[in-house]
Write a structure and sequence with these properties.
Helix content is 23%, strand content 31%. It has 247 residues and is of the alpha+beta class. The longest helix is centred in the first third of the chain and has 12 residues, at 14-25.
């Protein structure tokens, strides 16, 4: 767990102060899975963290973005719980992290366990705000997230169900299927009598977001900050934590 005491620096705003208090209080609850630092042109830096979290929400991932401002010795800090490791990585990418650190170079529990899982993660990590989180739940070591696909190609079956199970050393396994309605998803989760239906298009179609492109450019370039608009959350909309029994 990184030291979020940050001596010699002060929070730039109330949200950063609140996030600092939360992360300091949760020191024994989170395990660090991934950490990266990207310098900016003004002498500061962006720091990206992906944690495995054991907290009151029952979510397996927590992402944090820390920015050091060298001009006034302040910092901005944001922390975001996520239903899956892929969703946590996606949130970090939307805040400027390099997506490849979570797809090609990741290790441990926060890494895809196989090529199929990596492809499913890439769909979420690199596709900007295409997917909206509808609902999620965790039971018996498996986390599921129901996403709505806003792309026109998925109009007939716009609900994407992703199932994630994690192993501390091998990484996480991510499987997915497309459904026409949340009711169909609930019925499938409760019975599991059939395989997951194929994803619309039967392949991962990644639409790389501007934030992901900027992050990749600045980590492969001279370490300079890319000029990008303020990123939006990768999974938008309200999430409802569900404790539905999954068998």
């Amino acid at each position: 767990m990184p030291d979020f005491n940050l001596p010699g620096r002060r929070p730039a705003d109330a949200d950063s102060a609140e996030a600092q208090v939360h992360l300091l209080a949760a020191e024994g609850s989170y395990e660090l899975l991934s950490e990266s630092t990207v310098p900016d042109a003004l002498g500061g830096s962006d720091n990206f963290f992906l944690f495995e979290g054991y907290n009151e929400w029952g979510m397996p991932a927590v992402a944090a973005h820390l920015h050091h401002n060298e001009d006034d010795k302040t910092f901005t800090l944001a922390a975001e719980p996520a239903p899956t490791f892929a969703a946590g990585a996606a949130w970090l990418v939307q805040h400027g992290a390099d997506p490849q650190q979570f797809l090609q170079h990741a290790r441990g529990a926060g890494a895809p366990a196989d090529a199929r899982s990596a492809a499913a993660a890439a769909r979420i990590v690199e596709s900007g705000s295409r997917y909206q989180l509808v609902e999620h739940g965790i039971e018996y070591g498996e986390t599921w997230a129901l996403l709505r696909d806003n792309a026109a190609v998925s109009a007939e079956r716009p609900f994407l169900l992703q199932l994630e199970s994690a192993h501390h050393q091998r990484g996480y396994t991510l499987r997915e299927g497309s459904f026409s309605s949340p009711q169909e998803v609930q019925q499938w989760l409760e019975s599991r009598r059939t395989p997951l239906p194929p994803v619309v298009g039967d392949e991962v179609s990644v639409v790389v977001s501007p934030q992901a492109s900027a992050a990749r450019a600045r980590t492969t370039g001279a370490g300079q900050r890319a000029n990008a608009q303020e990123p939006a959350a990768v999974l938008t909309g309200a999430s409802v934590v569900s404790r539905r029994a999954v068998r």
